[in-house]
Structures are given as C-alpha cells and as structure tokens.
Design brief:
Number of helices: 11
Shape: elongated
Number of strands: 10
Distance between the termini: 113 Å
Structural class: alpha+beta
Strand order of the largest sheet: 2-1-5-4-3
Oligomer: single chain
C-alpha cells in the first residue's frame, strides 16, 4: 500500500524489499556487462569473462570455457593446416613443372609432370632411384656440385642434358631449394624442359652465321668490284683532264666537262661503296695519332672555299677555347666526315652562309668529348625524315636526287665512322 512519511510529508510510493533490490542491481549490472561485451572484440570479450568468473568464484565455469576455447582454436588451426597442405599438394600435382624431392641423391617423391618429363608411366616409377641415374656419367660431377650449391639456397639455376627413360637426351634447367621432409633435411628440385628454347637458339645462331657469311661475301664482292672499276675510272678521269687542256671548240669542251663530271660522280660512288663495304666487313681500323683539330678544319674549309665562293656563300670554321690543343685521333676519318657534311651543306644551300663549329663537352678518363656542328641556311630537313637520311642510298625524297644528285651513301658512311669512334650523329 502507499505510505505517507509523516516527517517529510512526502509520498514514498511502494516500498520494496531488500531481496527485490538485489535482483534489480544484478539485472542492471548484467545489462551493463552485456552492453560492454557487445562493444569488444572476440579476444577482449573472452578476457573480460575470465576476469568476471574469477571475481565471482566460478572456477569450474572458467576452466570449462578455457578448455572449450582451446579446443576450438586447436580445431581451427588443424583445419587451416589441412587446407594449406591440400592447396600445396594440388599446386604440386597440377604444376606443369617437374617437381621432385631427394635426400642424399635418392628420389623420395615426384609429381606427374616429372613422370611426363622423363617418359615414365607413373610418378612413382622414379621413386627410390638415384637422381644421377637420369644424367650422363660424364656430367655427374658437375650435376652433384651444382645441386649441392643449389640445395643450400645459393647459386643460379643450371642447364644440363637429362636422359629420359627411353635413353633420349633432353635439355633441362634445374632449380633446387632446401626442404624439411619427415623431420629430415632434403632438397626440392624443379626441372623445366628447355629443349625448344635450345633448338630456337641453335637455329638463330645458324641463321646469324649464314647472314654473317652472306655479308662477308657481299663485302668482298663489292670491294673487289670497286677496285676493278676504280682502275679504268682513274684512266677516264686522267684523260678527261688532259683533253680539257687541249684546243677544243666550245661544244667539244662542254662534252669533255660532262665526261669529267660524270666520271667524278661515278668515282665518288665507287669510293663510297668501297668504304661502306670495308666498314661492314670490319676492315677499317682507326689510327690513333696526334691530331690538330684546328688544322683539319682549315684544310676542309680550303677545299670548299672556291666552290662556296662560286655560289656566293660564306663559309667559316671556329673552335672553342675549351677544345684541348693536344689530341689523339684519326685525322683522315675526321676529315672524311667533315668533308661529306660540308659538301652536303654547299650542295643544298643557294644563298647565305655555312659554318663549322667545334666545342668540347667534357673530358673524362683522359678522353675529350667533342661536339662538331655543321650549320647552313639551306633547304633544311623535315624532323620526321632526319633519321632516314642516314640509311644507305637514302635521300629525303626522289625530287632531291633529281635536282641535286648524290648517291645517298655519304651520310651512311659518316654515321658508321662516327659510331666506330664511339660517338653519334644526327
């Protein structure tokens, strides 16, 4: 019943017993515990329950929960281990690579790919045999030494010739790694068939040899033909020069000049073919002698000064102060390169000027890196065709050949000579 507190004049409501209050407090505490546990992870919840059981004196309950958790963890670990072993087993069984395990040279296990590799009927056919049984006797020493090194986790894969069950040889690549098997140290071996790769390499080497022989034959043919043709051409050039010194009519002199110009063009072509064939055959050796780059520039400018003046072109050469005065190199080949470049510059320039500039980009280990620039105000070369002109018998287009002439060999020879000197041109 409701009661009235006479002292305070307040209605206290229904009076509860101490037993009822205890149940309320326990229920509230339980609710708080459940709320806290719901916010924790699995391991944290278990730790809280352990503490509560210990505080409440529930030892048997605690031991039961610990035992149940250990069994659950043991079961999960065992299941994970079995799944891992099954995955590994499937990887080994279905691997296209031959995989085996040996202990002190005796084969303990092979997968189906191993049986297929050696020509066995089943994977167990090789088990129990010595690994060296599948290699030629003369290679046993090399195989044993290599496998010993590989078996410790060191060394690179080796290539050997394996002997199949039917006695047929097979080129293989062998890898190995240490492995613990039944509590003992053993070695896992991986063998890969590389016979197709070896066959392709042999065919490539044979094709390369044939190509080199063909190149050599071509180079020798061009060299011989160039020499044979140069002899009569020198006669034509000499007699054309002599003919021009005699008393000729205007028409006869014009004909003689055409003969001389044509002979000079043909001689230039023969010289280009001869140089190119000698370079490709590796018969050109660079001479290392004292080189005065300033003197080489002066010689080249002097050769073309009259021709440049005839076209009203200004031609000049300069050398940077950074260029060393004492150099070692092949002056003849450098002169040949500059001659080709300046000749082209004059050929394709109708007005303006031509300059040759030599700079030093640096000196490393006693070698100077020179940069030679031949610049003109001529027709220029489109950016997309600048690499093309260094090919053999290549011009920018057909109209260039018709208008300016040329064989398309000069720049190809320049590139070969520059690369022979360890440089680049472009």
């Amino acid at each position: 019943m409701p009661t009235f507190n006479q002292k305070t004049g307040l209605n206290l409501g229904w009076i509860t017993t101490s037993k009822t209050c205890s149940r309320i407090r326990i229920a509230s505490a339980t609710l708080v515990v459940f709320i806290v546990l719901s916010l924790l992870g699995a391991d944290q919840r278990f730790n809280v329950l352990v503490v509560l059981c210990a505080m409440l004196g529930l030892g048997p309950v605690l031991m039961f929960h610990v035992y149940r958790r250990d069994m659950r963890e043991h079961h999960s670990a065992g299941k994970a281990l079995r799944e891992s072993e099954e995955r590994y087993r499937r990887l080994i069984e279905f691997s296209p690579t031959a995989i085996g395990v040996h202990e002190e040279g005796r084969i303990l296990y092979t997968n189906p790919a191993w049986a297929k590799l050696i020509g066995a009927h089943s994977a167990d056919e090789a088990v129990g045999r010595q690994l060296l049984d599948f290699f030629r006797a003369e290679s046993h020493g090399r195989v044993t030494a290599a496998l010993a090194q590989l078996g410790t986790g060191g060394g690179a894969p080796i290539e050997q010739r394996l002997v199949r069950m039917d006695g047929a040889p097979l080129d293989v690549e062998i890898c190995a790694a240490p492995l613990s098997h039944d509590g003992k140290q053993s070695v896992q071996i991986l063998i890969r068939d590389i016979s197709e790769r070896k066959r392709a390499e042999a065919e490539l080497a044979k094709a390369l040899q044939l190509a080199q022989q063909a190149t050599q034959v071509k180079a020798e043919f061009l060299t011989n033909m160039s020499h044979e043709l140069r002899t009569p051409m020198n006669g034509v050039l000499g007699m054309a020069d002599v003919l021009l010194t005699t008393r000729l009519t205007k028409e006869q002199k014009e004909y003689a000049e055409i003969i001389l110009t044509s002979a000079q063009s043909l001689m230039a072509l023969l010289n280009g073919i001869l140089d190119l064939s000698r370079i490709e055959a590796g018969k050109i050796q660079l001479e290392l002698a004292t080189l005065d780059i300033g003197a080489v520039l002066t010689e080249v400018i002097n050769v073309f000064s009259a021709r440049a003046a005839a076209k009203n072109l200004t031609i000049s050469a300069s050398r940077s102060e950074l260029v060393p005065s004492h150099l070692m190199g092949d002056a003849v080949r450098i002169r040949q390169i500059l001659t080709n470049l300046v000749d082209n510059a004059i050929k394709f320039t109708e007005r303006g000027d031509i300059s040759v500039r030599v700079d030093c980009e640096g000196i490393l280990d006693g070698s100077a890196k020179l940069r030679v620039v031949v610049e003109d105000s001529g027709i220029g070369i489109p950016a997309d065709r600048q690499k093309r002109i260094f090919g053999k018998f290549e011009q920018v287009d057909a109209s260039i050949t018709r208008k300016y002439g040329g064989t398309g060999l000069g720049l190809a020879i320049c590139q070969q000579l520059v690369e022979l000197m360890g440089g680049e041109i472009g």
